[in-house]
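Problem 12. The chain below contains 361 residues. Write out its predicted structure in token notation.
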Amino acid sequence: MQHRPLGHTGIDVSVLCLGTMTFGEQNTEAEAHAQLDRALAAGIDFIDTAEMYPVPPRAETQGMTESYIGSWLAARGRRDRVVLATKVAGRGEWINWLRGGGHRLDRRNIESALDASLRRLSTDYVDLYQLHWPDRETNFFGKLGFSPALEDDSVPLLETLEVLGDLVKSGKVRAVGVSNETPWGLMRYLSLAERHGLPRMASIQNPYSLLNRSFEIGLAEVAIREQCGLLPIRPLASGCSPENTLGGNGPWGRASPSTSASAGTPTRSPSGPRPDTLILLAATGWTRPRWRSPGSPAGPSPPPTSSAPPPWSNWRRTWRAWIWASPTRSSRRSRPSTSGSRIRLPEDKAGAQGPRAPPGD
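Solution.
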């Protein structure tokens, strides 16, 4: 198993990371332990979880994922062999039962969330502590069409970063990162860290796949130039991957037809080399396809040398057309007029001296 450095932290992580958000919902505790054992045996020593897990989030199951990992660590005694990452949830009315409601990325909430996570994980520190999503109103979880709030009451980024800095000093956290963040948010965190001597964001956990390459637009350059490693989530596009389609089952559970050269009739997609595994490069801004033949479990083989178009080329165009024609894709929404009104943004720090830097610096 290859390893990559996690930013400037001095921590090396395996290129594959075990996501655990099904532990407690789709997987029992015994199944969770079996998956953790198998991952570690394969050289995967990077484990990612969150206080909100499992998903879908429910008050009855919240925290079970961390508890299952904690019981595994207690039973196996392998804490020193794994890099453990977890997350603190941002503001969201859809999980108003979390931490008694009113959860924000302020000092009280972050410290309370971390202490609860440490108890469930049966450890006294985490290697990577991440902000699951921003406290401010912005675009994440696939939202399109940015509509800024006229009054922004979010927790200032500097306040959040100062809390994380204190947790690093206390030894409860080794490194910090963000998730579902925007280019503006990541650059502001990095700028504030440099200006105030606080911990830099070591990683960003955002979606990236063949179907969702939005990371390349604004965040890839930041990740590479600032050495803030991408931890790509949903690399197989939540099941809508070439593997599912080319293997004979489309995203809706039916065969994906292709044209037979000999008979001219629809058939299942041909077997043969196909991209069925995406390797997660945790410390770089990229995922890349690896190849193997279905009947060759020994390992990856070189990609095909045929000059013919790749078998998923038509599939990608079809998916792009479907996405743009999807009934779930909302039309441009009416936005409140901002004429004559100044959009108020939270100050970096209450009582900060001197002029405030303009947004996006």
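Discussion. The longest strand covers residues 173-179. Students who got a different answer should revisit the alignment rule from Section 12.3.
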